[in-house]
Protein backbone atom coordinates (compact mmCIF):
# COMPACT_ATOMS: atom_id res chain seq x y z
CA UNK A 1 0.00 0.00 0.00
CA UNK A 2 1.19 3.53 -0.78
CA UNK A 3 0.99 5.82 2.26
CA UNK A 4 1.83 9.08 0.51
CA UNK A 5 -1.50 10.86 0.88
CA UNK A 6 -2.86 9.03 3.91
CA UNK A 7 -3.77 11.19 6.89
CA UNK A 8 -1.63 11.21 10.02
CA UNK A 9 -4.56 9.66 11.87
CA UNK A 10 -4.72 6.78 9.36
CA UNK A 11 -0.95 6.31 9.49
CA UNK A 12 -0.99 6.23 13.29
CA UNK A 13 -3.67 3.52 13.24
CA UNK A 14 -1.68 1.48 10.73
CA UNK A 15 1.46 1.79 12.86
CA UNK A 16 -0.43 0.62 15.94
CA UNK A 17 -1.87 -2.30 14.01
CA UNK A 18 1.54 -3.31 12.68
CA UNK A 19 0.49 -2.80 9.06
CA UNK A 20 3.55 -0.65 8.37
CA UNK A 21 6.71 0.45 10.16
CA UNK A 22 8.02 3.96 10.61
CA UNK A 23 11.16 2.96 8.74
CA UNK A 24 9.05 1.93 5.74
CA UNK A 25 7.03 5.17 5.88
CA UNK A 26 10.18 7.25 6.11
CA UNK A 27 11.87 5.49 3.21
CA UNK A 28 8.75 5.96 1.09
CA UNK A 29 8.57 9.68 1.95
CA UNK A 30 12.26 10.20 1.19
CA UNK A 31 11.95 8.37 -2.13
CA UNK A 32 9.03 10.59 -3.13
CA UNK A 33 10.89 13.76 -2.15
CA UNK A 34 13.97 12.69 -4.11
CA UNK A 35 11.78 11.90 -7.13
CA UNK A 36 9.38 14.87 -7.15
CA UNK A 37 10.85 17.77 -5.20
CA UNK A 38 13.14 18.95 -7.98
CA UNK A 39 10.04 20.39 -9.63
CA UNK A 40 8.41 21.75 -6.45
CA UNK A 41 11.40 22.73 -4.28
CA UNK A 42 9.58 22.48 -0.97
CA UNK A 43 12.22 20.71 1.16
CA UNK A 44 15.12 23.14 1.37
CA UNK A 45 17.08 21.42 4.17
CA UNK A 46 16.73 17.61 4.05
CA UNK A 47 17.69 15.66 7.16
CA UNK A 48 17.27 12.13 5.86
CA UNK A 49 19.98 10.33 7.81
CA UNK A 50 18.68 11.51 11.16
CA UNK A 51 15.10 10.87 9.99
CA UNK A 52 15.90 7.24 9.21
CA UNK A 53 17.59 6.86 12.60
CA UNK A 54 14.56 8.43 14.32
CA UNK A 55 12.23 6.09 12.43
CA UNK A 56 14.18 3.04 13.56
CA UNK A 57 14.05 4.39 17.10
CA UNK A 58 10.28 4.87 16.83
CA UNK A 59 9.85 1.27 15.70
CA UNK A 60 11.90 0.05 18.65
CA UNK A 61 9.86 2.20 21.02
CA UNK A 62 6.62 0.77 19.66
CA UNK A 63 7.98 -2.75 20.04
CA UNK A 64 8.54 -1.90 23.72
CA UNK A 65 4.86 -0.96 24.02
CA UNK A 66 5.17 2.82 23.75
CA UNK A 67 2.40 4.77 22.02
CA UNK A 68 2.85 8.53 21.70
CA UNK A 69 0.59 10.86 19.64
CA UNK A 70 2.92 11.11 16.61
CA UNK A 71 5.12 8.07 17.16
CA UNK A 72 6.78 7.17 13.86
CA UNK A 73 4.88 9.69 11.69
CA UNK A 74 6.97 11.59 9.08
CA UNK A 75 6.70 15.38 9.37
CA UNK A 76 8.46 18.53 8.18
CA UNK A 77 9.33 21.80 9.89
CA UNK A 78 9.36 25.33 8.50
CA UNK A 79 12.93 26.54 7.92
CA UNK A 80 12.48 29.38 10.42
CA UNK A 81 12.32 26.99 13.39
CA UNK A 82 15.62 26.26 15.09
CA UNK A 83 16.76 22.64 14.79
CA UNK A 84 20.07 21.69 16.36
CA UNK A 85 22.56 20.73 13.65
CA UNK A 86 20.62 22.28 10.74
CA UNK A 87 20.90 25.82 9.34
CA UNK A 88 18.29 28.42 10.23
CA UNK A 89 18.61 31.25 7.71
CA UNK A 90 15.13 32.69 7.15
CA UNK A 91 16.35 32.86 3.54
CA UNK A 92 18.88 35.60 4.41
CA UNK A 93 22.24 35.09 2.65
CA UNK A 94 24.24 36.69 5.47
CA UNK A 95 23.02 33.90 7.78
CA UNK A 96 23.67 31.05 5.35
CA UNK A 97 25.98 29.30 7.81
CA UNK A 98 24.10 29.92 11.05
CA UNK A 99 23.39 26.63 12.85
CA UNK A 100 21.57 26.84 16.22
CA UNK A 101 22.67 24.75 19.16
CA UNK A 102 19.22 23.71 20.36
CA UNK A 103 15.76 22.88 19.03
CA UNK A 104 12.86 25.29 19.10
CA UNK A 105 10.30 24.41 21.74
CA UNK A 106 7.87 23.19 19.05
CA UNK A 107 10.51 20.98 17.43
CA UNK A 108 11.18 19.51 20.87
CA UNK A 109 7.45 18.85 21.27
CA UNK A 110 7.27 17.14 17.89
CA UNK A 111 10.17 14.87 18.80
CA UNK A 112 8.79 14.17 22.27
CA UNK A 113 5.51 13.12 20.62
CA UNK A 114 7.48 10.64 18.49
CA UNK A 115 7.44 12.42 15.12
CA UNK A 116 10.12 11.69 12.52
CA UNK A 117 11.40 15.01 11.13
CA UNK A 118 12.36 14.65 7.46
CA UNK A 119 13.78 18.16 7.11
CA UNK A 120 12.95 21.84 6.80
CA UNK A 121 10.72 23.62 4.28
CA UNK A 122 11.32 26.76 2.25
CA UNK A 123 10.41 30.34 3.21
CA UNK A 124 10.65 33.85 1.73
CA UNK A 125 13.45 36.27 2.58
CA UNK A 126 13.04 37.21 6.24
CA UNK A 127 9.58 35.55 6.19
CA UNK A 128 8.30 38.84 4.75
CA UNK A 129 6.48 37.87 1.58
CA UNK A 130 3.34 36.12 0.35
CA UNK A 131 5.58 33.91 -1.81
CA UNK A 132 8.36 31.53 -0.75
CA UNK A 133 11.65 32.24 -2.50
CA UNK A 134 15.08 33.44 -1.48
CA UNK A 135 18.64 33.63 -2.79
CA UNK A 136 19.81 30.60 -0.81
CA UNK A 137 17.16 28.02 -1.67
CA UNK A 138 15.33 29.44 -4.69
CA UNK A 139 11.57 29.46 -5.27
CA UNK A 140 8.96 26.95 -4.13
CA UNK A 141 6.42 26.18 -6.84
CA UNK A 142 2.74 25.47 -6.40
CA UNK A 143 2.19 21.70 -6.83
CA UNK A 144 -0.92 22.42 -8.89
CA UNK A 145 0.83 24.77 -11.31
CA UNK A 146 4.60 25.24 -11.13
CA UNK A 147 4.37 28.68 -12.72
CA UNK A 148 2.46 29.93 -9.66
CA UNK A 149 3.38 30.55 -6.06
CA UNK A 150 2.76 28.16 -3.19
CA UNK A 151 2.28 31.18 -0.91
CA UNK A 152 4.27 32.44 2.03
CA UNK A 153 5.73 32.44 4.40
CA UNK A 154 4.92 28.77 5.18
CA UNK A 155 4.79 28.01 1.46
CA UNK A 156 7.32 25.19 1.57
CA UNK A 157 5.30 23.36 4.21
CA UNK A 158 2.05 23.73 2.26
CA UNK A 159 3.68 22.52 -0.96
CA UNK A 160 5.26 19.56 0.86
CA UNK A 161 1.89 18.47 2.24
CA UNK A 162 0.09 18.91 -1.07
CA UNK A 163 2.85 16.89 -2.79
CA UNK A 164 2.59 14.00 -0.33
CA UNK A 165 6.09 14.51 1.09
CA UNK A 166 4.97 14.36 4.74
CA UNK A 167 1.87 13.79 6.84
CA UNK A 168 2.11 16.95 8.95
CA UNK A 169 4.08 20.19 9.11
CA UNK A 170 4.45 23.16 11.42
CA UNK A 171 4.50 26.78 10.30
CA UNK A 172 3.89 30.27 11.61
CA UNK A 173 1.49 33.13 10.91
CA UNK A 174 1.84 36.89 11.22
CA UNK A 175 0.24 38.00 7.96
CA UNK A 176 -1.60 34.88 6.86
CA UNK A 177 1.57 32.79 6.60
CA UNK A 178 -0.23 29.58 7.58
CA UNK A 179 -3.58 30.32 5.96
CA UNK A 180 -2.49 31.79 2.62
CA UNK A 181 -0.27 28.83 1.58
CA UNK A 182 -3.01 26.44 2.73
CA UNK A 183 -5.53 28.27 0.55
CA UNK A 184 -3.20 28.37 -2.47
CA UNK A 185 -2.14 24.70 -2.19
CA UNK A 186 -5.47 23.13 -1.17
CA UNK A 187 -4.57 21.92 2.34
CA UNK A 188 -5.62 22.68 5.94
CA UNK A 189 -3.93 25.00 8.44
CA UNK A 190 -4.81 26.51 11.78
CA UNK A 191 -3.73 29.89 13.14
CA UNK A 192 -4.15 29.39 16.88
CA UNK A 193 -5.36 32.00 19.33
CA UNK A 194 -2.53 34.44 20.05
CA UNK A 195 -0.43 33.02 22.87
CA UNK A 196 -1.86 29.49 22.73
CA UNK A 197 1.34 27.81 21.44
CA UNK A 198 4.84 28.69 22.65
CA UNK A 199 7.08 30.32 20.02
CA UNK A 200 10.57 30.13 21.57
CA UNK A 201 13.15 29.13 18.99
CA UNK A 202 11.14 30.48 16.07
CA UNK A 203 13.54 33.41 16.07
CA UNK A 204 15.53 35.24 13.41
CA UNK A 205 18.94 33.69 12.81
CA UNK A 206 21.65 34.41 15.39
CA UNK A 207 19.07 35.90 17.77
CA UNK A 208 18.95 34.15 21.16
CA UNK A 209 15.97 31.79 21.53
CA UNK A 210 14.24 33.77 24.27
CA UNK A 211 10.72 33.01 25.55
CA UNK A 212 9.27 36.21 24.09
CA UNK A 213 5.63 36.65 23.06
CA UNK A 214 5.69 38.57 19.79
CA UNK A 215 2.75 40.82 18.96
CA UNK A 216 0.44 39.31 16.28
CA UNK A 217 2.69 36.30 15.53
CA UNK A 218 1.74 32.68 16.23
CA UNK A 219 2.96 29.18 15.37
CA UNK A 220 0.55 26.50 14.23
CA UNK A 221 -0.19 23.18 12.50
CA UNK A 222 -0.62 22.30 8.82
CA UNK A 223 -2.15 19.07 7.52
CA UNK A 224 -4.31 17.42 4.85
CA UNK A 225 -7.35 16.89 7.11
CA UNK A 226 -9.10 18.86 9.84
CA UNK A 227 -8.73 16.04 12.35
CA UNK A 228 -4.98 15.99 11.74
CA UNK A 229 -4.88 19.71 12.55
CA UNK A 230 -6.49 18.97 15.91
CA UNK A 231 -4.05 16.12 16.52
CA UNK A 232 -1.02 18.35 15.89
CA UNK A 233 -2.46 21.33 17.76
CA UNK A 234 -2.75 19.15 20.86
CA UNK A 235 1.00 18.52 20.60
CA UNK A 236 1.86 22.19 19.99
CA UNK A 237 -0.49 23.95 22.40
CA UNK A 238 0.61 25.07 25.82
CA UNK A 239 2.73 27.79 27.43
CA UNK A 240 6.50 27.92 27.38
CA UNK A 241 7.93 25.89 30.27
CA UNK A 242 10.37 28.75 30.95
CA UNK A 243 7.60 31.27 31.66
CA UNK A 244 3.84 30.73 32.13
CA UNK A 245 4.37 27.00 31.90
CA UNK A 246 5.86 27.08 35.38
CA UNK A 247 2.45 27.94 36.82
CA UNK A 248 -0.20 27.22 34.18
CA UNK A 249 -1.53 24.16 32.39
CA UNK A 250 -3.63 24.49 29.26
CA UNK A 251 -7.15 23.11 29.01
CA UNK A 252 -8.95 24.16 25.84
CA UNK A 253 -12.75 24.09 26.05
CA UNK A 254 -14.50 21.55 23.83
CA UNK A 255 -16.15 22.59 20.60
CA UNK A 256 -19.40 24.45 21.13
CA UNK A 257 -21.30 21.95 19.00
CA UNK A 258 -20.84 18.48 17.53
CA UNK A 259 -23.55 18.61 14.82
CA UNK A 260 -23.37 20.85 11.75
CA UNK A 261 -27.00 21.83 12.22
CA UNK A 262 -26.25 23.40 15.62
CA UNK A 263 -23.69 25.92 14.36
CA UNK A 264 -24.51 29.60 13.93
CA UNK A 265 -22.31 31.03 11.18
CA UNK A 266 -21.79 34.48 9.71
CA UNK A 267 -20.65 34.50 6.06
CA UNK A 268 -18.70 37.56 4.86
CA UNK A 269 -17.31 37.81 1.35
CA UNK A 270 -17.04 41.57 0.74
CA UNK A 271 -14.39 43.95 2.05
CA UNK A 272 -14.66 47.74 1.75
CA UNK A 273 -11.03 48.18 0.64
CA UNK A 274 -10.49 45.42 -1.92
CA UNK A 275 -12.80 43.26 -4.10
CA UNK A 276 -13.10 39.51 -3.75
CA UNK A 277 -12.25 37.64 -6.94
CA UNK A 278 -14.95 35.48 -8.48
CA UNK A 279 -13.12 32.19 -7.85
CA UNK A 280 -12.76 32.93 -4.13
CA UNK A 281 -16.33 34.20 -3.87
CA UNK A 282 -17.49 30.92 -5.41
CA UNK A 283 -15.50 29.02 -2.76
CA UNK A 284 -17.11 31.01 0.05
CA UNK A 285 -20.52 30.32 -1.45
CA UNK A 286 -19.80 26.58 -1.71
CA UNK A 287 -19.08 26.52 2.02
CA UNK A 288 -22.16 28.63 2.76
CA UNK A 289 -24.34 26.25 0.72
CA UNK A 290 -22.90 23.23 2.54
CA UNK A 291 -23.68 24.89 5.88
CA UNK A 292 -27.25 25.61 4.87
CA UNK A 293 -27.69 22.11 3.47
CA UNK A 294 -26.42 20.72 6.76
CA UNK A 295 -28.98 22.68 8.72
CA UNK A 296 -26.67 25.35 10.17
CA UNK A 297 -28.04 28.81 10.90
CA UNK A 298 -26.34 31.09 8.36
CA UNK A 299 -26.45 34.88 8.18
CA UNK A 300 -24.83 37.23 5.67
CA UNK A 301 -25.07 40.49 7.64
CA UNK A 302 -24.99 41.62 11.25
CA UNK A 303 -24.44 44.99 12.94
CA UNK A 304 -22.18 43.15 15.40
CA UNK A 305 -19.37 42.76 12.85
CA UNK A 306 -16.54 45.17 13.76
CA UNK A 307 -15.71 47.87 11.23
CA UNK A 308 -13.62 46.07 8.57
CA UNK A 309 -11.91 49.21 7.26
CA UNK A 310 -10.79 50.32 10.72
CA UNK A 311 -9.75 46.74 11.54
CA UNK A 312 -7.40 46.47 8.57
CA UNK A 313 -5.99 49.95 9.20
CA UNK A 314 -5.17 48.97 12.77
CA UNK A 315 -3.71 45.67 11.62
CA UNK A 316 -1.58 47.35 8.96
CA UNK A 317 -0.22 49.91 11.43
CA UNK A 318 0.59 47.30 14.08
CA UNK A 319 2.14 44.94 11.51
CA UNK A 320 4.41 47.51 9.88
CA UNK A 321 5.37 49.20 13.13
CA UNK A 322 6.91 45.91 14.18
CA UNK A 323 8.44 45.07 10.81
CA UNK A 324 10.63 48.23 10.68
CA UNK A 325 11.33 48.62 14.40
CA UNK A 326 15.01 47.70 13.89
CA UNK A 327 15.60 49.70 10.72
CA UNK A 328 18.77 51.87 10.71
CA UNK A 329 18.26 55.37 12.08
CA UNK A 330 18.86 56.95 8.65
CA UNK A 331 16.16 54.81 7.00
CA UNK A 332 13.75 55.58 9.83
CA UNK A 333 14.35 59.30 9.34
CA UNK A 334 13.53 59.03 5.63
CA UNK A 335 10.31 57.18 6.42
CA UNK A 336 9.35 59.80 8.99
CA UNK A 337 9.85 62.57 6.43
CA UNK A 338 7.64 60.70 3.94
CA UNK A 339 4.95 60.14 6.56
CA UNK A 340 4.95 63.83 7.47
CA UNK A 341 4.02 64.59 3.86
CA UNK A 342 0.83 62.51 3.93
CA UNK A 343 -2.44 64.39 3.74
CA UNK A 344 -4.44 64.33 6.97
CA UNK A 345 -7.39 62.86 5.05
CA UNK A 346 -5.36 60.07 3.42
CA UNK A 347 -6.90 56.87 4.79
CA UNK A 348 -5.45 54.50 2.19
CA UNK A 349 -3.65 51.32 3.18
CA UNK A 350 -0.43 52.75 1.70
CA UNK A 351 -0.77 55.63 4.17
CA UNK A 352 -1.52 53.23 7.02
CA UNK A 353 1.61 51.24 6.20
CA UNK A 354 3.78 54.37 6.17
CA UNK A 355 2.29 55.77 9.37
CA UNK A 356 2.75 52.41 11.07
CA UNK A 357 6.42 52.34 10.10
CA UNK A 358 7.08 55.50 12.12
CA UNK A 359 4.81 54.85 15.10
CA UNK A 360 5.91 56.34 18.38
CA UNK A 361 5.29 54.36 21.55
CA UNK A 362 2.37 56.70 22.22
CA UNK A 363 0.94 55.91 18.77
CA UNK A 364 1.27 52.17 19.44
CA UNK A 365 -0.50 52.43 22.79
CA UNK A 366 -3.38 54.30 21.15
CA UNK A 367 -3.64 51.67 18.40
CA UNK A 368 -3.53 48.89 20.98
CA UNK A 369 -6.37 50.53 22.91
CA UNK A 370 -8.44 50.55 19.73
CA UNK A 371 -7.53 46.89 19.22
CA UNK A 372 -9.00 46.08 22.64
CA UNK A 373 -12.26 47.73 21.57
CA UNK A 374 -12.28 45.47 18.52
CA UNK A 375 -11.69 42.42 20.71
CA UNK A 376 -14.67 43.45 22.80
CA UNK A 377 -16.73 43.75 19.62
CA UNK A 378 -15.71 40.25 18.58
CA UNK A 379 -16.71 38.88 21.99
CA UNK A 380 -20.17 40.36 21.46
CA UNK A 381 -20.37 38.88 17.96
CA UNK A 382 -19.37 35.42 19.17
CA UNK A 383 -22.12 35.49 21.73
CA UNK A 384 -24.50 35.30 18.75
CA UNK A 385 -22.37 33.32 16.26
CA UNK A 386 -19.97 30.39 16.54
CA UNK A 387 -17.80 31.15 13.52
CA UNK A 388 -17.25 33.59 10.66
CA UNK A 389 -16.59 32.25 7.15
CA UNK A 390 -14.60 34.58 4.91
CA UNK A 391 -11.83 34.63 2.27
CA UNK A 392 -8.13 34.26 3.02
CA UNK A 393 -6.89 36.23 0.00
CA UNK A 394 -8.91 37.66 -2.90
CA UNK A 395 -7.53 35.22 -5.52
CA UNK A 396 -6.21 31.69 -6.01
CA UNK A 397 -2.46 31.17 -6.54
CA UNK A 398 -0.94 33.92 -8.68
CA UNK A 399 2.11 33.75 -11.00
CA UNK A 400 5.57 34.08 -9.42
CA UNK A 401 6.55 37.73 -9.04
CA UNK A 402 10.09 38.26 -7.74
CA UNK A 403 10.32 42.04 -8.16
CA UNK A 404 12.61 43.04 -5.27
CA UNK A 405 10.53 46.15 -4.62
CA UNK A 406 7.49 44.59 -2.96
CA UNK A 407 5.68 47.91 -2.87
CA UNK A 408 5.78 48.08 -6.68
CA UNK A 409 4.17 44.67 -7.18
CA UNK A 410 0.52 44.33 -8.11
CA UNK A 411 -2.11 41.62 -7.67
CA UNK A 412 -4.62 40.91 -10.46
CA UNK A 413 -8.21 40.49 -9.28
CA UNK A 414 -10.51 39.57 -12.17
CA UNK A 415 -8.56 41.77 -14.59
CA UNK A 416 -7.96 44.80 -12.36
CA UNK A 417 -4.70 45.56 -10.56
CA UNK A 418 -4.35 46.31 -6.86
CA UNK A 419 -1.44 46.98 -4.55
CA UNK A 420 0.29 43.68 -3.70
CA UNK A 421 0.08 43.99 0.09
CA UNK A 422 -3.60 44.99 0.04
CA UNK A 423 -4.43 41.29 -0.30
CA UNK A 424 -3.52 40.92 3.40
CA UNK A 425 -6.79 42.53 4.49
CA UNK A 426 -8.52 39.18 5.08
CA UNK A 427 -5.57 37.63 6.91
CA UNK A 428 -5.49 40.62 9.24
CA UNK A 429 -9.13 40.23 10.21
CA UNK A 430 -8.24 37.42 12.62
CA UNK A 431 -4.63 38.39 13.29
CA UNK A 432 -5.17 41.91 14.64
CA UNK A 433 -7.42 40.81 17.56
CA UNK A 434 -5.54 37.50 17.99
CA UNK A 435 -8.48 35.28 17.04
CA UNK A 436 -8.05 31.65 15.97
CA UNK A 437 -8.70 30.87 12.31
CA UNK A 438 -8.80 27.57 10.40
CA UNK A 439 -8.06 27.41 6.67
CA UNK A 440 -9.83 24.66 4.73
CA UNK A 441 -10.17 23.71 1.06
CA UNK A 442 -13.32 24.94 -0.67
CA UNK A 443 -13.00 23.52 -4.18
CA UNK A 444 -11.12 24.72 -7.24
CA UNK A 445 -11.21 27.63 -9.65
CA UNK A 446 -12.09 27.40 -13.32
CA UNK A 447 -8.33 27.09 -13.96
CA UNK A 448 -8.14 24.08 -11.66
CA UNK A 449 -6.37 25.92 -8.83
CA UNK A 450 -7.28 25.29 -5.18
CA UNK A 451 -9.46 27.77 -3.34
CA UNK A 452 -9.72 27.92 0.44
CA UNK A 453 -11.67 29.84 3.05
CA UNK A 454 -11.06 30.56 6.71
CA UNK A 455 -13.25 29.93 9.73
CA UNK A 456 -12.64 32.61 12.37
CA UNK A 457 -13.76 31.86 15.92
CA UNK A 458 -13.75 33.13 19.51
CA UNK A 459 -10.57 33.51 21.53
CA UNK A 460 -9.24 30.25 23.00
CA UNK A 461 -12.13 28.25 21.52
CA UNK A 462 -9.96 26.81 18.76
CA UNK A 463 -11.69 23.44 18.93
CA UNK A 464 -14.92 25.05 17.71
CA UNK A 465 -13.53 25.97 14.27
CA UNK A 466 -11.60 22.72 14.03
CA UNK A 467 -14.79 20.74 14.63
CA UNK A 468 -16.69 22.86 12.10
CA UNK A 469 -13.90 22.31 9.55
CA UNK A 470 -14.12 18.56 10.17
CA UNK A 471 -17.90 18.57 9.66
CA UNK A 472 -17.55 20.56 6.44
CA UNK A 473 -14.89 18.12 5.24
CA UNK A 474 -17.35 15.29 5.80
CA UNK A 475 -20.07 17.26 4.04
CA UNK A 476 -18.41 18.23 0.77
CA UNK A 477 -14.88 16.88 0.78
CA UNK A 478 -11.49 18.34 1.60
CA UNK A 479 -7.97 17.82 0.29
CA UNK A 480 -7.54 16.49 -3.25
CA UNK A 481 -4.10 15.51 -4.53
CA UNK A 482 -2.73 17.66 -7.38
CA UNK A 483 -3.24 16.27 -10.85
From TrEMBL:
<protein>
    <submittedName>
        <fullName>Amidase</fullName>
        <ecNumber>3.5.1.4</ecNumber>
    </submittedName>
</protein>
<keyword id="KW-0378">Hydrolase</keyword>
<dbReference type="InterPro" id="IPR023631">
    <property type="entry name" value="Amidase_dom"/>
</dbReference>
<dbReference type="InterPro" id="IPR036928">
    <property type="entry name" value="AS_sf"/>
</dbReference>
<dbReference type="Pfam" id="PF01425">
    <property type="entry name" value="Amidase"/>
</dbReference>
<dbReference type="GO" id="GO:0012505">
    <property type="term" value="C:endomembrane system"/>
</dbReference>
<dbReference type="GO" id="GO:0004040">
    <property type="term" value="F:amidase activity"/>
</dbReference>
<feature type="domain" description="Amidase">
    <location>
        <begin position="24"/>
        <end position="464"/>
    </location>
</feature>
<dbReference type="InterPro" id="IPR052739">
    <property type="entry name" value="FAAH2"/>
</dbReference>
<dbReference type="InterPro" id="IPR020556">
    <property type="entry name" value="Amidase_CS"/>
</dbReference>
Amino acid sequence: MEWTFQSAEEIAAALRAGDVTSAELTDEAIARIERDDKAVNAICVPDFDRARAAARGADRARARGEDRPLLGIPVTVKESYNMAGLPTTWGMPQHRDYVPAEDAVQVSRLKAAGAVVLGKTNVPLGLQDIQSFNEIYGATNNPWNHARTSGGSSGGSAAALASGFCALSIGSDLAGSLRTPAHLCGIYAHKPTLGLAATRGMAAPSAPPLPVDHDLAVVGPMARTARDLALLLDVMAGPDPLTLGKAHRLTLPPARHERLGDFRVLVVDEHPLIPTGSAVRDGVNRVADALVDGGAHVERHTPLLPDLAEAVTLYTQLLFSGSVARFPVEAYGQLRDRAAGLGVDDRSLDAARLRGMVFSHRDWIEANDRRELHRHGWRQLFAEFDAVVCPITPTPAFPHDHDPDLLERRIDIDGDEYTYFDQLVWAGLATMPGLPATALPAGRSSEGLPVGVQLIGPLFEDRTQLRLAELLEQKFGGFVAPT
